[in-house]
Design brief:
- This is Death domain-containing protein.
- The chain has 20 helices and 4 strands.
- It is mainly α and about 525 residues long.
- The protein has 3 domains: about 210 residues, no CATH class; about 180 residues, no CATH class; about 80 residues.
- Strand 2, helix 19 and strand 3 form a beta-alpha-beta unit.
């Protein structure tokens, strides 16, 4: 049987440690300072308690450990040996802790606080685990890991889909460590994921560099494809078109008097994706809600926005989305034709494809190239997209628009011996630092340029909308002025007629008095005539 101590260990039952490996396990622990050959009698009790705790972390039950403690009667070596024996025989809950593997042993040692022994075993047994172990103390990485849950789950680095606020980075890194110990190639997958996000790209590149040094080309056959700058330029324009699409849909919603209320929009989106409900609760207007929708969309996936528009049957917005979808499909077809043309130059079956883009390409475009390429190529081929200034992947002096066939390279996987890389000269280190600073400055400038263009684009749209509102306001003011003038005319006529009425009423009163006087005179004359 091939010894598990000469290669990476899998959690597959056929490759787990067996009871016959007990002597090697004991020697491995002693080589790395865990329970040496000599003990201080004053420390015996403390050491035996540590063996008890180690057994718990390995999956042994308290009942089993109590029996071992009683039987060994303070014999530290025998206590450790009996604990490991039960572990190798898969007693109690050992299987639920990953089974008897180097990975689970290292994990138990770390939980016990025996980090020096765990690191030493990692270094000897498993370079991939050793590389990853360096990042347990990286608080920044641990804080952002929950935000990468979807990518980690899709790459089978963690077992369950998680909600970021309900999981700790340490727990995720433990799961990633287990996956890497089971299959060292998963470390490269993890590095690829980190490289796709600007905030974790430096960590991803460092892990990838260490991985390449430890494992080389991994006997795989690959193809390098240099993507024309014209394609990345079209991707950049498509990003602007996506921003324009969201802006237009938002404008349609805001000016439509029959648009649904904020609460109804939140309810519909929450029904579409339940995980968004906590974030939706914090959004106060249409602008902020659509910003959340955009954050959960991608260049070739606006399904959430489309669902919202279709749910409320907003015909004008439907046309905008259909126009965008047609444009992105056209771009995907162009990218597919280019990649297929490059693949025809190679007759062999490929394990991976490395797509190299211009060194000035922004992170957002880099991510879109990865996504669109994965969508148009076979799932059996691993795709990595890098910029030409990432020396850890390829030499940046390669000629553009050519492809290079990478033949298989064999490298020994014997990890019991490691070779230290000589330190570089101070001048080289200074030069590398200068290059890195220039690279970071360039990245910041391009990100700033992109956001500035997007800002100007949105400002222009706002100005056009404000101008239209001003035109509408002027028209309304003119209408109001006309109505006011008509009102004044009517008021003037009414006043004139009122004056006429008052004159007539006065004349009528005067005439009425005159009649009364005439009647009195007539009565007086009649009385005189009678007398």
């Amino acid at each position: 049987m091939a010894s598990p101590f000469s290669s990476s260990v899998s959690v597959d039952p056929t490759n787990q440690l067996k009871i016959t490996d007990l002597p090697e396990v004991l020697q491995l622990l002693r080589r790395h300072g865990y329970y040496g050959t000599s003990y201080d009698l004053a420390q015996t009790r403390a050491l035996q308690t540590t063996s008890y705790d180690l057994g718990l972390f390995l999956g042994l039950s308290p009942a089993t450990l109590d029996v071992i403690t009683k039987d060994t009667k303070g014999d530290v070596r025998r206590c450790l040996r009996e604990c490991l024996t039960k572990w190798l025989l898969k007693a109690d809950d050992v299987e639920t802790k990953g089974g008897p593997t180097i990975s689970s042993l290292i994990s138990a040692l770390r939980k016990l606080g025996e980090n020096e022994a765990a690191d030493g075993i990692d270094m000897e047994m498993h370079p991939a685990c050793r590389i990853l172990a360096h990042y347990y103390s990286n608080r920044f990485l641990l804080s952002v890991l929950p935000e990468l849950g979807i990518s980690l789950y899709g790459a089978e680095l963690i077992q369950k889909m998680i909600i970021p606020r309900y999981i700790q980075g340490e727990s995720l890194l433990d799961e990633i460590q287990a996956a890497v110990c089971a299959d060292y190639k998963k470390l490269e997958t993890f590095a690829d994921i980190l490289c796709k996000y600007r905030v974790t790209a430096d960590i991803g590149r460092a892990i990838m560099r260490d991985y390449r040094e430890a494992y080389g080309s991994d006997d795989e056959i690959g193809l390098k494809i240099y993507l024309p700058k014209s394609v990345t330029s079209e991707l950049y324009l498509m990003q602007l078109k996506l921003a324009d699409t969201f802006f237009i849909v938002r404008s349609i919603l805001m000016r439509n008097p029959q648009s649904p209320s904020i609460d109804i929009i939140k309810h519909v989106l929450g029904r579409y994706d339940m995980t968004l409900r906590p974030q939706l609760a914090l959004r106060k207007d249409v602008h902020n809600i659509l910003q959340l929708v955009r954050e959960n969309s991608s260049l070739d996936d606006v399904s959430m926005l489309e669902y919202l528009v279709n749910e409320f049957n907003i015909e004008e917005a439907k046309l905008v989305i259909e126009e965008y979808k047609a444009a992105i499909e056209k771009l995907k077809m162009k990218l597919c034709q280019f990649l297929e043309k490059e693949l025809l130059k190679v007759s062999s079956l490929l394990d991976y494809i490395t797509i190299i883009v211009d060194k000035d390409t922004g992170y957002s475009v880099l991510k879109d190239v990865q996504r669109l390429s994965s969508a148009v190529l076979s799932d059996d081929v691993r795709i990595t997209v890098v910029r030409s200034d990432y020396s850890m992947w390829e030499d940046s002096k390669q000629e553009s628009f050519t492809n290079t066939y990478v033949g298989p390279t064999v490298q020994s996987k014997d990890t019991t011996l490691t070779t230290e890389v000589p330190a570089e000269k101070d001048e080289d280190q200074v030069m590398l630092l200068q290059e890195k600073v220039e690279s970071i400055q360039k990245q910041l400038e391009e990100e700033k340029e992109f956001h500035e263009k997007e800002k100007q684009f949105i400002i222009k749209k706002y100005e056009e909308e404000i101008l239209q509102q001003k035109r509408d306001l002027i028209q309304n003011e003119e209408r109001i002025a006309t109505l006011t003038e008509q009102q004044e005319e009517v008021t003037g006529d009414l006043k004139h007629k009122t004056e006429q009425y008052e004159e007539l009423r006065s004349d009528n009163e005067l005439t009425h008095k005159q009649l009364e006087e005439l009647e009195k005179e007539l009565k007086g004359e009649k009385l005189r005539k009678r007398s």
